[in-house]
Amino acid sequence: MQIRHWLGSLVLVAIAGCKSDTRREAERVDASLSWVATAGTVTKGWVENRLPVRYVERVLGEAHEELARNDEAEGVRIVETLRDAVRRRDAAATREPMASLLARWSALQQRSEQMKSQ
What we know:
- By secondary structure, this protein is mostly helical.
- It has helices at 2-17, 21-47, 53-69, 73-87, 95-117.
- It is elongated and about 45 Å long.
């Protein structure tokens, strides 16, 4: 009897532990959305002289890693461009990638909303 209970519990745990592909994709999109927003926020703070360069470089590095981990190639490319501009202390060079980042955020937001409505 104990073996049957144990096997039943094991099956329930295995079923509960498996996430659907849709759920994993939704989590990936939401994580990417968050990191894209974070990259934009810290870059804007640096351009407005509210955040120190080292902090912004560190956060953009983390954003780069997390976006790469989530297979968000477009976000990675944009963050690389922002990191280069910050590294060069060239605030003007952030304008175009910030516009691209906003467009990417909008696309991810739309994708996230679509996935949640399914």
